[in-house]
Amino acid sequence: MILADIPIPDLELEAHDGLDVPHDMVALAEPLEPGQMLLLRTLDGVHRCAEVVGLDFTATETIYRLTYGDPVAPEMAAALARPPRSALRHWVDDIDVEVLLGELATARRTATSRQVSESSW
């Protein structure tokens, strides 16, 4: 789950059940999409699960409309914020091919040099 730090004290969140946050205030590398779930961390270090319920746009900013629940226990927040284990890939990227070709070339040079050194004995 995405962990998003917001520069707002938890006491302010207690008074509401939703929040409109500009993208630059959340400081995420990737934009959020409606329906996406995230873990909010307030200035006090309190965690809350949140959902993006909508987007608004200004001329220069994307505003996320969020709803959130009650504070989450620290151990639950740690489990939710843990990055997911990468799944096994079923595809090959260009860089994978380049790496494999480089490894094969190295192995071939090593095998050829062994053959030459063994034949000279």
Written description of the protein model:
The protein is of the alpha+beta class and 121 residues long. The chain folds into two domains: 2-81, Ribosomal Protein L25, Chain P (Beta Barrel); 90-120. Helix content is 36%, strand content 30%. The protein is built from four helices and five strands. The protein has helices at residues 10-14, 23-26, 74-81, 94-119, and strands at 2-5, 18-22, 37-41, 47-57, 62-72. A five-stranded mixed sheet has the order 1-3-4-5-2. A hairpin with a 5-residue loop joins strand 3 and strand 4 (47-57). The longest helix has 26 residues, at 94-119.
SSE order and pairing:
Elements: E1 2-5, H1 10-14, E2 18-22, H2 23-26, E3 37-41, E4 47-57, E5 62-72, H3 74-81, H4 94-119
Parallel strand pairs: 1-3
Antiparallel strand pairs: 2-5, 3-4, 4-5
Short key terms for the protein model shown above:
30% strand; 4 helices; 36% helix; 5-stranded mixed beta sheet; Ribosomal Protein L25, Chain P; 2 domains; 121 residues
Radius of gyration, whole Å: 25 Å
Q: Which superfamily, in CATH terms, is the homologous superfamily of the largest domain?
A: Hypothetical PUA domain-like, domain 1
Mean pLDDT rating:
86
Count of alpha/pi helices:
4
- How far do the termini sit from each other? 62 Å
CATH class of the largest domain: Mainly Beta
Helix/strand order: EHEHEEEHH
Arrangement of strands in the largest sheet: 1-3-4-5-2
Domains, number: 2
Q: Count the beta strands.
A: 5
**Mass-distribution shape:** elongated
Q: Return residue spans where pLDDT drops below 50 for at least 5 consecutive residues.
A: none
Topology-level CATH name of the largest domain: Ribosomal Protein L25, Chain P
